[in-house]
Amino acid sequence: xxxxxxxxxxxxxxxxxxTGVAVAGVTVGVGFSIMMAALMQGSxxxxxxxLVNALPHITVTDERRNPPAQPAELAFDAAEIRGLTxxxxxxxxxxxLASMAALEAWIPGAVAPSVKVQAILRYAAxxxxxxxxxxxxxxxxxxxxxxxxxxxxxxNSLFTATNAIILGDRLAEKFGARVGANITVQTSEGAHxxxxxxxxxxxxxxxxxxxxxxxxxxxxxxxxxxxxxxxxLRLRVDxxxxxxxxxARVEREIDYKSVSWQEAHEDLLSTLVIxxxxxxxIVGAILLVASFGTYNIISTITHEKxxxxxxxxxxxxxxxxxxxxxxxxxxxxxxxxxxxGFALGYALCLALGAVEIKSPFMDVTHLPIAYNPWHYAIAAxxxxxxxxxxxxxxxxxxxRLHPVDIIRxxx
Amino acid sequence: MSEPQFxxxxxxxxxxxVPLIEARRVTRILPGVVPTVLVRNIDLAIGDNEFVAITGPxxxxxxxxLYLLGLLDLPTSGEVLIRGRSTARMDEDExxxxxxxxxxxxxxFHFLLPELSVVDNVALPMRALGALSAAxxxxxxxxxxxxLGLAEHAVKRPDQLSGGQRQRVAVARALANDPAVIxxxxxxxxxxxxxxxxxFELLQDIVARGKSVVAVTHDLELAARMQRRIHLIDGEVxxxxxxxxxxx
Lengths: 411, 248
Prior knowledge:
The complex is a heterodimer. Chain A has 16 helices and twelve strands. Chain A is an alpha+beta fold. Chain A is elongated. Chain B is α/β, with parallel strands linked by helices. In chain B, the strands form two sheets. A six-stranded mixed sheet of chain B has the order 6-7-8-3-9-10, with helices on both faces. Chain B has a four-stranded antiparallel sheet with strand order 2-1-4-5, covered by helices on one side. In chain B, helix 3 (118-129) runs parallel beside helix 5 and helix 5 packs parallel to helix 6. Chain A binds chain B through residues 3, 6-7, 10-11, 13-14, 307-308, 310-321, 402-404, 407-408, 410-411, and chain B through 63, 67, 70, 72-73, 92-93, 96-101, 103, 105, 107-109, 111-116, 120, 124-125, 127-129, 173, 185-186.
């Protein structure tokens, strides 16, 4: 065995109590940092998953990002035109079927049409405002989580009755409607229809569950009082993280405003950056505290080993060799602490993952935990780096000890 | 006790006209508010196969001189030469290497590494030098211990040995790299009479094998049995019996 490692290992092995304390310090640092990272990452992933699932990955609406030029603006180069009535533009996406076909040719995912209208739903003398979305049940299954969110009925239930409607469970709860109930739908366009509740869904997002209803596209067009209207295309991409770039290309190609889920939730996502800064600060602080523990122990060992250092140097061991002995000791402690810390971190994650969370605002759930090898790798790397730093300073000091000073003191 | 196996298999004794260790006008002053002169203007040469005692009262600079000769300390002025080569410009690593390969140390207290076994303590300088294979190092370490009557203690820890045994292990360690000279600082100072005699005989054996031994001692009877006696008072050589032991 290498001389340096052999002596370092002997020191570590024969000072079991001190070694144990130092290893425990690193273990706690690594274990808790893994737990914190898993918890923060898990909650962030869960949060993003909910954001992603709550809406289509990309929503194309019949709006333009910049208002179209008015005829007068096109006709004249005048600096300013006032008091003109803008030309009325027919609502909806032009040639929706052609647009969908064009998008389906290259989009890594699926496209579904929808018609969105605002309406008042009335049942048992109670009125509730809601967005009524006309969907194609066959296509909708490919772009949203709605089929899996159905609590009663299925999307195909929309085909089982005239003017069938699926309600969010909290919306239904608001006016006491159940499956089979006949409700009245009054839209802002002045349309009026009776609809039969054929299903209930639950997305887990309160704002959606208490203010959204689904009907067939055709029913939606009737409620919007415009035959053939499609005012939204809902897209789902295979990799949700690429939604932003896909949305940009969609917008370039069909010239309608195309909003990715990231853009729709930009404000929330920006708070995640702050969360990450907080998370890494906390994790870093935990590891820093652990490294101080390692530093203390290595310093103590080095101090106690002053006589041995003098002996080794008097025998002819170089400063570099002596320094490496103590650095290797710190690395042994750091490595052992990291390995045991992995086990502690994993156990803490399992324990936290088993904790049930109950809240009036959400379903009973468990703490979201992310099991990511990078958390372990980063914690281990920081532990080893801090152990190295913790070992290096006392090791350098130890190696510079003048053997004569120690020998004189000892004799 | 079996026949000592001091000679390194790879090297032969190196008698030479060039002194083994030479001090030229060596002065060592400890800096401080009131600087302390440890040794002053020391001129001396240690040749091959010498058995030298450095004597003097407490605080006369005996150990300081030994540390300077052994490159453990640096002179404030003057220089120490090893085999005619000045050590003044050597860096710390080079001095360490020279100590490792040419000089062996025995201190008043054994100064064995407590966590290592006896055989590992003896093997330590050889492992640091790295000239032999692991098997050869172990064989030589066991051979040295055997020659000093310590074979059965090879795997024990130092704290399981008596004071005399520990000091003999320290001698074995000093001999590990087959140095040209053993520098001993009060090697019998902490031992009982019987153990002192055993260690002294060991040192005599080393000289008989062609090595040199320079030993600091305050025991004048012991010093009288050595070939050469150098007497220090207040950091200066006041008497040197010379190699013949006749007196300066």
